[in-house]
Amino acid sequence: MGGTQGNITHATESATLADVLERILDKGLVIAGDIKIKIVDIELLTIQIRLLVCSVDKAREMGIDWWMTNSYLSSSAKGLEETDQLARLRERIARLEEAGTAPLAPSARQSQAVAARQVKRSRKGPA
């Protein structure tokens, strides 16, 4: 047998699932797709799917950090939301007080009602 022997090459690098996952989280992976349902050229429903798979650090690097401001996902965001709401309420009260139409507390309303009845009684005179 005087033939030449063929060279067989084998891949020496094998990627484990951990390697693939690390690469996806490091670089990011985007999956996009559209689903359209039409009947007789009338579009009834369109679903656009956009999926981004990456690490938190990569997402922040790309400017995506919505979970930081979502009060359901972040306790610090909940505190910020409550602080913001409190600041808005204080501003509203200040504007109302400046306009002279500040809402009265229940006890102040009762006091005004009692005073109004006394004024009515004094105008009627003794019974």
What features would you describe in this structure?
The protein has a two-stranded antiparallel ribbon. A hairpin with a 2-residue loop joins strand 1 and strand 2. Among the domains are: 48 residues, no CATH class; 33 residues. The chain has 127 residues and is of the alpha+beta class. The protein has four helices and two strands, in the order H-E-E-H-H-H. It is 48% helix and 18% strand.
Report the span from N to C terminus: 139 Å
Question: What percent of the residues sit in helical stretches (DSSP H or I)?
Answer: 40-55%
Radius of gyration: 35 Å
Residues in β-strands, percent:
15-25%
Mean pLDDT score:
77
Task: Please summarize the sheet with the most strands.
Answer: 2 strands, antiparallel
Features:
two-stranded antiparallel ribbon; 4 helices; 2 strands; alpha+beta; 18% strand; 127 residues; single chain; elongated
Brief characterization of the structure:
The chain is of the alpha+beta class and 127 residues long.
SSE arrangement:
Blueprint lengths: L16 H11 L1 E11 L2 E12 L2 H6 L13 H25 L6 H19 L3
Antiparallel strand pairs: 1-2
